[in-house]
Structures
1.
Amino acid sequence: MKLTNLNCPQCNGYLNQERDMFFCSSCGAAFNVDYDDDDVNYTELVTQADRTRMLLQRDVDLMTTGYQLNKEMKDREMYRAQTRATQKAVKTAGKAVGAIFLYMFISMALMIGIFIFVWYRVSQSKDKVLSNKNEAYETIREEVKKDSNFMENMIASGSMYESRFRPDSVTDRSDGQRRTAWMVGIAEIEDVYLMENKKSKEQDLFFVYKIEYQYEDSEDTIEVYDCFIVKNLQLDKDGKLKLDFKGSRYAHFNTWNAFEDKDQLYRECILGKTGFTATKLDVTR
């Protein structure tokens, strides 16, 4: 049967084409496709147009897909470039920070090393100085005890000092009378004390002298006591005690410019030096 249109010859319903057959949508009748030349030409035209439309759509889809792929590739490449740049910057910054910390660490290590070295050398120097001082003090202590020549010279020096700077006459106003007393002879040594400072360890010598005065109106005499002090004993280059004649007397504020009682001198001049250790020396040799 030749179909001149797309309507069913039986019920005039709409025909649907599937491959080489037509099927009525209303009554379900089936008809073979009987193409004539016009139908064939029409079908070819329709088929060609569909193919052209499909090809164009495919090209459009391909172009769209290519554009999207190209854009995605560019975006990914840009992301990779940014990531590489960021990683490079982080690595560069990390290296710079690491170099700074390494420099700081090396500098601190050098400073600590120098400090430890200086501290060690200073400690050694201090220890050596302290050791030398202690040895010197020990030597002085022993030399004072055994160097009779030094002791004799210092005793004579103190006696001369007392005779030179002590007044020859003293006016005594005791008992309501004015009596003048004159110094007799020279100052005589009574005791010698080695005084050692408990903190600094420096050593002094205290010479206790007895001075006799006689009243001019009688033969009555009076004995007074004075202390001659030589400070900071030193050793010379040969390890011997240096003779020092620049001593000083203990300050007194009384008529005799001295102690009238020897025990009082001992309590004030010797025991009164609370920061010192006193060692009485033998001067009978």
2.
Amino acid sequence: MKYTNDELAIRLWDTEHVRHTMNRMCYYLTNRDYRGCLNDLWVKANRRSASLGYNNGFYVGMDAIAQHWVLEQPASHKADGSAAMFTLTTPLIKIHGDGKTAQYQGYMPGFQSTANGDGTLQTYMTLDMCFADLIKEDGCWKIWHLILMHDHTMEAGKPYGKTPTFGWEDPIAPEFGTPTVARELHDPCFGWEVLYDDMPRELDTYVEKYSYGPDGDFGKRYFERDKR
């Protein structure tokens, strides 16, 4: 699409505001302030179609997301001595042609430390990928569909090369809970085999099929989706 200089300036600022929204999300997740994240950064007008995805499926609707993030938050997240850090790097941001919706992708390295109660910590470095659909509500970019794809967990002080490829129970996986829409979105054993098809694209407008919500193609195998 061709844009006027004024439209290009708006789109440049939109790109920055999308990036700022996602960066702010990292501070909320790091502080385990899930309620604040939902209240400040997520959609209001599109609550019913909002979604949060993990490797094993989607929580659909703000009520289900809040139930998982706020009410079912693991006790280990609140324990004294526990800590976490989430970051986002190498963002790929695409504003759709009508300027009303956008897509985001970024790599998400971080760590989690859980207090054992005996003065020791269980500490892991985590490697994730983040995908999001954002929508403009009252002139502000809000998170609409979020997918947090967990890739690798590395235990501090232990050689990662000795972690079995198969049959190893990832200590982070229980945090995914039981999504309302169960579906395998990512299997770390096979890597990002469909990453190219899942990356953000600039479309004329939002298309549900190419979204990061439960009705999109995200996570489907090659033979289950139409090529763009």
3.
Amino acid sequence: MKQRILYLMIFCLTMGAFARGQESADSVGQQEIVIRDSANFVKASLMIAEPSRLHVQSEFGHAFLRMRCDEAGLDYCFSMESGDYEGFFDICTGHYPNRLINVPTAEYMKLFDREGRIVTEYPIDIRVEEGQRLWQLLDSVCLSGPSPHQDYFHHGCSQEVVRFVEWGLGGTIVYGENAKKFGNTAFILGNQLLPANSWLHIPPSMLATTDGTDRKLTDAEKAMIPSIIPTLLADARLVKPDGESRPVLKDTAPIVHQPENRTPESQALPIYVWFALLFLFTLVVNLVGMRGTGKWARCLSKVTDAGLFLLYNLILLAMVVVCWRSTLPTTSGWNWNYLIYNPIPLLVWFYDRFRGLSHGCWRKTYLAYACWLCLYMVVMFIVGDHLILEQYLLIGTFSARCLFKVKEHRIND
């Protein structure tokens, strides 16, 4: 009996030692798998959705991150969202909620498929511990609620994505020569990347304050435009505190996610064409006014004056309201356009309604303002290239009409 008990004890001890040895061997094997496949254990990708004309905030595209762990069956997209499509006024004033959300990739990609938008995936060069840290960071930001930064120009989707990558990877992104390909100000950067037929060419030229038109952007700040992020990061390097330096993106071909129904590009005329037509129409009206004195010519002249005066004051109203309501440096503060769009013409018009101005006084007023508009265009172009073609054509329209009014009041004087 004692001998059997001794044999049983030896068997249990032997099996326990074997089990511990097997567990140790399994853990070593798992560690080897993780080390061997560390570059693919946690996968991170920069996702760029192409620009869309359906929504104002999508005119420059959209940037978000995709995080995957195939062994755990996890695949999520992390995106800065407002919860609803905010309007242009909300973007300009910074009054809209914004937060980071995580959505299963298959579900999130259906949104772009419905809109007919191509999404391009750029794998990020990431280590296993960096991927885990980045994922934890994104999860914690998702749980933190609305972002305190509701600033499309300084904390938009693409800029936040780049910041997340820097924090998660534990280094600083140093940009290369590609960053020099783009404009030095937010105003120029935005306008040169918009399609020619986008009406968004107009608001920046009217609403941008000195933060957008005069302040020079750093290379990192140029990341405000989602569609240029791949170009910026193509030759950028991640520099870590210990001196390690490596590319941000993997040296692999990007993955293109094609929608089932591709949205055709808009065939609308470029915006400058419409403003050129307005300018030519004004010249024709001026010519008719100089050659004709009939009732229809006078009627056409009055309608043109009323339309241009209304357009002028609507621009002024939009500038004042946005500046008054805005909490963003890009759209609040000093705006160079106040030199040409201001209440003075409206005050002169009111004064004439109640007191009356002579033809000679009106002639001098129109001549002075026409000269001022021309001088403004020349000076602003020389000192900072603040104006775009649409702006030149619009100011030229006002100037041409003012010069005609000089001649009209000279004839009537």
4.
Amino acid sequence: MTTSDIQEIVEGMEELRSWRLNNVYDEVRQWGARPIEFNSDPRGTQLYSIEEMKRSFCRRFVDLADSASRLLEEDRVIGAAILARAQIETVGMAAFFVHEVSRMTRKVDLEAFEGRVAQFLGGPADGGGVAKRVHVMDAMRHLDKLDHSYVEYLWSKYPVTKAFFNALDEVKSSGLEIQDLVSRISAMKNYDTLSEFVHPNALGTFFIFGQPEDRGPAEEGVRELLKRMTGAATWQGHHMITALNGSEGWSDECFRQFGSYFSQST
């Protein structure tokens, strides 16, 4: 595979990713605007709050994406990177929320179900006080598993893509950074890359906020990398869309599992 072959593939991937990025953004925005409807009376249950929480993740994601985009228009790449990193955390927490509510529903233990939901919603715990919050890194570990499975799926479905990345590592003269490309596919690689700049270390400080008169190609390259990573964070919303679409019909499942308990509390 020659350098020109690689460049042609990269350009094609970028065009496709840009289209998919806008598509993901629209899907998330539309999910956040969905009306909350039930086939059974949700009074006396946590079901309305659960549905509201799902839409809250969507609205937060869109707000972060919009804010990051405005910062990029002003070339404020670190602020945009911080928001992009928060976008990926929102994706992780949304997917983890869907997973945990589904898991606790299948256990058919109403007390455990409501206790776990309260940890996401910040509701009261048994015995008073507020339930212990779900830590964002628990959500990111869950996203890491989803992300790994997704990348493996891409490798198996599109073997030419895997061969392409392997070739990149061999063709050093291409002048392309393989980590940059991988980060635009993998949510966790993207998250790790953004984290390097979000923290006030050398990359996030010296290479961005050094003396303006000393800025050269290397510093400009870092800024361009951050712009690409910020856009990739919006694309990672596909994990959230998959999770939310898989949660449709939850309320009916909850009524099947907990219906007798719900009727006693109304």
